[in-house]
Specification:
The protein is an alpha+beta fold and 300 residues long. Helices cover 64% and strands 9% of the residues. The chain has two domains: 27-167; 171-289, 60s Ribosomal Protein L30, Chain: A (2-Layer Sandwich), CATH 3.30.1330. The chain has a five-stranded mixed beta sheet with strand order 1-2-5-3-4. The longest helix has 49 residues, at 77-125. Residues 1-26 form the signal peptide.
Length: 300
Amino acid sequence: MPSIRIASSLTALAAAAALMAGCASAPTVTPALQQARATVRSAEADPGALKYASLEVKKAADSLRRAEELSAKRESPADIDSAAYIASTQARTALALAKAQTDEDAIKAAEADRERARADAAAARASSAQAQAANASADANAARAQASAAQADAAQAQAQAAALQRELADLQARQTDRGMLVTLGDVLFEFGRAEIKPAAQNAIGKLANYLNQHPDRRVLIEGFTDSVGSDQANLTLSQRRSQAVAEALRARGVDLARVETRGYGEQYPVASNSSTSDRAMNRRVEVYISNDNQPVRARG
């Protein structure tokens, strides 16, 4: 009887161990990974993305596969999220490229319609007075085609700006008349210092990832301080902080030939300096990203 009880206990222990092992081998699935799966699936199902941005779709699928491998190996959530973020960014880029190309096709079609209308009008003018009526109709068609082309241009620019804002959504980017603006608050640095805190490295990494995905974009980094301290000390500190952000981007592969830095000290405050919270808002670094391959316009 004792031997039977011992055997039963060993069997129960073995079953429990097998159950625990099964649980331990379950993959780690994070919200970022779930989002990446959905975004990559959208890109893979989009005919325009497959036609015009097949390479970006493949990159997104490969990056998602990497994230899934990390998940299956139960790597850290941070590593999984990093790979998933790259996959999502690449998939969104593919969708944005497809939208832009579709809009460009519409522009070309409108231009072809306009040229045909002009040719018809020229032939009509050469024939008779009736051709003059045809010419007026052709001019109207050309005007409509030009309006359609202008609308397509505007839609393309809006789509590109929206795609850029979506890719930088985690950094709370917003569109301005100087380009996309990412504001890095005073949590980036210790008070009075220009060394970037370890806790801020994630935000810097996301910004660098985006810039490496868009090598044609130009960058302007502007540093600001509150009113505590002398004007010269604040100006120097703001310059050092903007340069520190530039160096952090360079360390992550961003070419500094694309990057300009400025320091404005306590100029251009976004809040009064009458309270601790207002001064904290004024201690910031603003990163402007161009909407094209041209330098970001300086402050007026």
